[in-house]
Amino acid sequence: MDKKINLIPEELTVPPSVVKLTKVINKFSIIAVISLILTSLAMISIFIYFSINLKNLDSSNSTLKETVISLEKTEQQLALTKDKLSKIILVKSLDSADTNFENYKEFKTIVTEFPDMSLGETEITPKGMEVSVSSNNTSSFIDFLKKISEFNKFPNASIQSLNFRPEKGLMLNLTYGI
Amino acid sequence: MEYSTNSQLKYLAKPILILVAIISLLVFTVIFGIGKIKTLNVKIQAARVLKGQLTQKVDILQDVRGKVEEGVDLAAIALPSKGSILFGLSQIKNKVNSLGLTIENLKTTNVIKEEGGVERASISFDIVGDETNLYLFLDSFKKILPLSNINKLSITSEGGTSTAAITVNFYSSEAIEKIPAITGQVSGLTNEELDILNSLSSYEVPEFTIPTVSEFPVRDDIFN
Question: I need a surface site. Which of A40, B135, B149, B182 has the fewest CB within 10 A?
C-alpha cells in the first residue's frame, strides 16, 4: 500500500479546503487567460476589419472628391442656374398689369358687340383697371350694362361716375379691381 | 492539527494575484479594445455618410450637366446681373420697328432693389400705331428676355389708331458669389425649374448681344 509522505514542515502545511480553493482559483485563472486570448484576438480581428473598411471608404471618398472637383464647373453652373431660377420664379409671381390687360381685351370684345358704344381711355394696373365707356343710344347703353354685369373677371366692380353730355351721350366710368 | 493563518494566506496569495492580474488585463483589453473599435466605428459611419453625400452629389451633377450647360446662359439672360435696361430698350425698339409703331417720350428709371435679391428698373414710353399691332406689342412682353412685366398701361383708341402710355419693369439680379464646399450638399433641378428652363427657351432673347456667364461663383472653403 502507498504511504503518504509529507516533507513539508508542519508550520507550512495548509488545510485541504485551502488547497481546493487554490485549485478553483487556478481553474478560473486558466479560463480568464483563455478569455483574454480570445477577446484579444476578437478585438484585433474587428480592429483590422474596421481599419480595412475605413481605408477603403477613405479611398473611395478621395476618388469621389476628385470627381466632384472635376465637375466643379457643372456645380458652379448649377448653383448659378438654381439661384437665377429661384429669382425667376419670384419675378413671375410678382403682380403685373399683364393679366388685367387680358381682361381688358375681353371687356373690349363686349364693347365692340354694341356698335353704339365707344370705349374711352382705359388705365390698367396690377390692381385692376379703370374704363370709360359712352353711348348716344340709351337702349344700347342699357343692354351694354346688362351684358357687362356678366363680366366676372374681377372680384370687385364699382361705378365711379355716370354722366350725360349732349355731345357724347351717357358716359360711364367703371373701376374693376382685385 | 492546527494550521497557521499566515501559511494559508501565503499559499493563496500567488494564485489570487495571478487571477486578479489576468482579470485586470482582460478588463483593460475589453475597455481599451471597445474604445478603439468605437472610435473606428464612428469614423466609418462618418465616412459612409460622406460617401453617400458625395455619391449623391456626383450623381446629381452628372445628371444635370447637360441641362445646366444650356440653362445657365438662358437663366442669365432671363435675369441678367446688370444691364437689364439696355436689353429691355433693345427689345422694345426691335418690337416697335418690326410692328411699325411709333415710340415717344422714352424714359428710364434707376435700378431699385426688390425683395428676394431681385432688382427692378422701369422704362416708360408712349406708343402710337395700329391697334392690332399695339396689342401684339403689349402681348410680346410675356415672351421676351430679360423678364419683364407691364406695370402700368393707359390706352385710348380712335379710328383704328391707338395710343398707349406704358411703364414696363425689367428685372435683374446679382449673381451668387459662393458655391457650397466640396462635401456640401447640392440639389438637382426640380420639375418646376426644368419647366421654367424649357419655357424660357421659347422666349425671344435680345438681338444686340447674348451675354455669357463669366462670373462663376467660388467655392466656400477651397481647402475642403
Answer: A40
